[in-house]
Amino acid sequence: MAEMESKVVIIAIGKDKPGLVANVTSVVSELMGNIEELDQVVLQGIFIMSMIVKLLNLNSSKKLSELTSKLSKQGEKIGLKIHVYPVKTLISA
Predict the structure, then answer these.
(1) Between β-strands 46-55 and 7-15, what pairing exists: parallel, antiparallel or unpaired?
(2) pTM score, two decimals?
(3) For residue 57, what pLDDT is reported?
(4) How many of the other CB atoms lie within 10 Å of CB of 1?
(5) Tell me, what's the pLDDT at 3?
(6) Are 1 and 54 in contact (CB under 8 A)?
């Protein structure tokens, strides 16, 4: 599988509060993801974070599905909407 296919963009948005970055990145780490780039900003109390993550030991759709599911559940717990997009789908559009 090509390197580009193993990368995802993760976008998280919600009300700002302490611990949001740690909560999201812990899920990525748990699934052997390597954060290659991360940017976050708070605009008028709204937390916005974007990451480029390379999925290590990739089992393609299974790993992506697991990451998406776990991030969604974590987001619900901490009040964030979290979306995961494979990089290949964004650059081929």
Answers:
(1) antiparallel
(2) 0.88
(3) 67
(4) 9
(5) 46
(6) no
Q: Can you give the pLDDT at residue 4?
A: 45
The CATH number of the structural domain formed by 3-88 is: 3.30.70.260
CB atoms under 10 Å from CB of 28, counted, come to 20
| Sign (positive or negative) of CA dihedral 19, 34, 56, 52 | positive
- Taking 70 as the threshold, does the pLDDT of residue 5 lie above it? no
Residues with Cβ within 8 Å of residue 68, at least 6 apart in sequence: 84
Whether residue 92 is predicted with pLDDT greater than 90 in this model: the reply is no
Domain boundaries, the chain: 3-88
8 Å CB contact between 13 and 81: yes
The closest of 45, 72, 69, 62 to 6, measured between CA atoms, is: 62
- The position carrying tokens 């030991």 is 57
Measured over all CA atoms, what is the biggest interatomic distance in the chain, rounded to whole angstroms?
41
